[in-house]
Amino acid sequence: MVGLLPRFMASRNDEAVEAIECELLGEWGSFSWWLQVFLASACLVSLVGKRFTDRVRRPWKVWFFDMAKQGVQAFMTHLLNIVLSTGFVEWLDSDADPCNWYWINMSLDCTLGVGIIFFLLRSLQFTYRMKCVGRPELARCGHYGDPPQFRIFARQLLDWQALTIV
């Protein structure tokens, strides 16, 4: 009986059961690596396409800053989830493979993680608006000054990465 993601596969005469190992990223140049490249390219193409269908188009520099924050965050989340998933298999004595742990990590990131990041982002914005800190330009996500400044973008990028890693 072969499911969508088979864990075991019976031999033709059902005498031997052979385990199928899950690999998050196989050897360099394997199908899984090319799949990652294809998915990243599809994301980039969809973001460029969306930019041309927006009713109010942001300047290219602002669009690039926003896209870069999304891309770096997605890459870091993906990389950390791969590392954690592989680590959980090594550290914990369980029957789950790295793909199971990756699925659990992504599910938690996309549910509980969104709520936690929302709370942390609002707290950080409040902190930047306080008179003792006095950096209100950093409290407005997606606003990089007029004209857009790389310095504000870099700080927002670092803040966002710190929040998503937490």
Q: Report the principal-axis shape.
A: globular
Number of domains: 1
Q: How many H/I helical runs?
A: 5
Kindly provide the radius of gyration, computed on alpha-carbon positions and rounded to a whole number of angstroms: 21 Å
Distance between the termini: 41 Å
Total E-strand runs: 2
What profile does the largest beta sheet have?
Answer: 2 strands, antiparallel
**Poorly predicted ranges (pLDDT <50, ≥5 residues)?**
1-11, 13-17
Order of helices and strands: EEHHHHH
Whole-number average pLDDT? Answer: 82
Major sheet: arrangement of strands: 1-2
Helix content: 55-70%
Q: What structural category do the secondary elements indicate?
A: mainly alpha
Fraction of residues in β-strands = under 5%
Description:
This protein is mainly α. The protein has one domain. The protein contains 5 helices and 2 strands. Mean pLDDT is 82; it is low at 1-11 and 13-17.
Task: Characterize this entry briefly.
This protein has helices at 31-53, 60-91, 98-110, 112-129, 150-165; strands at residues 8-10, 17-19. The chain is mainly α. Strands 1-2 form a two-stranded antiparallel ribbon.
